[in-house]
């Protein structure tokens, strides 16, 4: 299991693309990085097929997401591009079995069980809610974590060096990432004293405890509000306005509700920050992600080298 290095983002606010870089070039760069992230775990568990190499077996890849197919379109297409770049042809040498919970986490267990019944060769799942559903569905089929903040604390691995079991993938330095997000808000809002984190009830424990600890270190009181549907998002913002919150940290698992959250934040004149750059592309103010993208690319190349040696 690989752990991402410290966040590759500075405490200062930066635009989502480099100065002097066209939007088209920047978008292409983001897609290449998404491609690398999606590609890396499969290099560990699936054979690499060259164009001239005969394929003996059709690989079946399960893909489990708590969001909708529409919200996940960029990631799933990058995933498919990664498979194609390795010589896999969808429908011939690989079958892509995607299951989406459409923002209803209670469906994840049923969908994970369905993937197991299909006898997929590997299940790619993320974030935490999807990983847990896959873990509960099987102890034998390999599971690749697309992203996990604290795999040891969540019980997905015995340790980072020796995870054991059937789960592998990438983790990130949760505490460092959350601290950076709070620093972003501090840089934007002088005298910031209160921040609200919005996430789902099934969120990783580390996502709650780490950001609250980071807040105490920075002199910022962080309150976590759990929401699970559009109605609760509305009520959360009504409460946020009453608590004099100076900024909102948005959980990755709330991706199906990003448009609603972003609109409510704009009306409330509250800055928002989340993890992936897609949050900014959707209209959110800031995003701070770790260097897991470059780490995934390096580890993917390493796995490829070991397989070819």
Structure description:
- This protein is of the alpha/beta class.
- 46% of the residues are buried.
- The strands form two sheets. Strands 1-6-5-4-2-3 form a six-stranded parallel β-sheet, sandwiched between helices. Strands 8-7-9-10-11 form a five-stranded parallel β-sheet, with helices on both faces.
- It is built from ten helices and eleven strands.
- The chain has two domains: 14-172 and 291-308, 3-Layer(aba) Sandwich (Rossmann fold), CATH 3.40.50; 174-287, Response regulator (Rossmann fold, 3-Layer(aba) Sandwich).
- β2 (59-65), α2 (73-85) and β3 (94-100) form a beta-alpha-beta unit.
- The model is unreliable at 4-40 and 290-309 (pLDDT under 50).
- The longest helix has 23 residues, at 23-45.
- α1 packs across α2, α1 (23-45) crosses α10 (292-308) and α5 (174-188) crosses α6 (205-218).
Gap from first CA to last CA: 20 Å
Main beta sheet: strand number and arrangement? 6 strands, parallel
Taken from the alpha-carbon principal axes, the silhouette is: globular
Q: For the record, what CATH class of the largest domain applies?
A: Alpha Beta
Give the strand content.
15-25%
Q: Specify the number of helices.
A: 10
Would you tell me which CATH topology of the largest domain applies? Rossmann fold
Q: What is the arithmetic mean of pLDDT?
A: 75
User: Based on DSSP secondary structure assignment, what is the total number of beta strands?
Assistant: 11
User: How would you name the CATH homologous superfamily of the largest domain?
Assistant: Response regulator
* Radius of gyration, in angstroms, nearest whole number: 19 Å
Spatial sequence of strands, sheet with the most strands: 1-6-5-4-2-3
Identify low-pLDDT runs: 4-40, 290-309
CATH architecture label name of the largest domain:
3-Layer(aba) Sandwich
- List the helices and strands in order: EHEHEHEHEEHEHEHEHEHEH
What is the helix content? Answer: 40-55%
Which class best fits the helix and strand makeup? alpha/beta
């Amino acid at each position: 299991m690989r752990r991402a290095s410290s966040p590759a983002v500075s405490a200062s606010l930066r635009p989502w693309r480099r100065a002097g870089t066209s939007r088209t070039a920047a978008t292409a760069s983001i897609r290449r990085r998404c491609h690398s992230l999606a590609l890396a775990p499969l290099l560990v568990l699936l054979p690499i097929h060259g164009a001239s190499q005969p394929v003996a077996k059709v690989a079946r890849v399960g893909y489990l997401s708590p969001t909708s197919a529409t919200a996940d379109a960029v990631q799933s297409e990058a995933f498919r591009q990664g498979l194609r770049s390795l010589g896999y042809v969808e429908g011939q040498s690989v079958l892509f079995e995607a299951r989406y919970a459409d923002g209803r986490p209670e469906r994840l267990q049923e969908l994970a069980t369905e993937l197991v019944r299909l006898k997929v060769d590997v299940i790619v799942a993320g974030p935490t809610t999807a990983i847990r559903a896959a873990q509960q569905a099987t102890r034998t089929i390999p599971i690749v974590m697309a992203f996990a903040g604290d795999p040891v604390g969540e019980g997905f691995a015995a340790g980072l060096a020796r995870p054991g079991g059937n789960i592998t993938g990438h983790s990130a330095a949760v505490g460092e990432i959350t601290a950076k997000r709070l620093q972003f808000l501090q840089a934007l809002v002088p005298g910031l004293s209160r921040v609200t984190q919005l996430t789902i009830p099934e969120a990783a424990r580390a996502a709650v405890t780490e950001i609250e600890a980071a807040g105490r270190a920075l002199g910022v009181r962080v309150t976590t509000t759990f929401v699970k549907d559009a109605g609760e998002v509305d009520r959360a913002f009504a409460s946020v306005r009453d608590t004099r919150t100076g900024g909102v940290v948005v959980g990755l698992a709330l991706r199906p509700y990003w448009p609603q959250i972003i609109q409510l934040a704009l009306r409330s004149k509250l800055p928002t920050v989340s993890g992936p750059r897609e949050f900014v592309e959707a209209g959110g103010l800031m995003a701070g992600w770790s260097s897991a993208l470059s780490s995934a690319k390096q580890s993917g190349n390493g796995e490829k080298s070991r397989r070819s040696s």
